[in-house]
Design brief:
Shape: elongated
Number of strands: 0
Number of helices: 6
Order of helices and strands: HHHHHH
Strand content: under 5%
Helix content: 55-70%
Radius of gyration: 18 Å
Length: about 200
Amino acid sequence: MTTPLPFAWPYLLVFWSVCLWVFIPEIRMVRQALVIAPIPAEDRGSLHVLLAGFGAALMMALLLSILAPQATFPGNRAVWFFLGLLTLISGGLLRRHCFRVLGTLFNGAVTIHADHQVIEAGAYRWVRHPAYSAGQLIILGMALSLGNWLSVVVAFVVGFFAYSYRAHVEEQALLAALGAPYARFMAARRRFIPSIW
């Protein structure tokens, strides 16, 4: 059995350092959503679905990289590892961009604030949910780093369904709270990928 590079020396140092950089702000936000503040009704369980889906996607990717070595990408494993690492870093950078653009409106749980407004700056000019696109890039990057195409497919599909549910819940809450301005925002841009979907 060949050890996936995120668990092999010296690749593991780079991979897990990047993961720490990506996930420390996420852990703080989720902790606040789960422990410090009560989860609002408008969340409709989407935070739990998202956390379970994200965790399941990564766990399945890891297991498949070990249990299905026949699905290893062809060619140099280090190339796939670094492609995954760049994708992971891109997702982390896009998430941080969304944190800055939304400011206090960015929460772990779907939350409607009294002063809530439609934000059309930054990446929100092109898609409705760039932070969720970033989350999918993070999942994709971690799976690519494992060097297994089956890991990539399964992780992406599981993550996609979790983020799609979350986006649907958020859109319904924002439509109910903001009405026509949010409906216009939705009509003018795609959900996750500019001009595609």
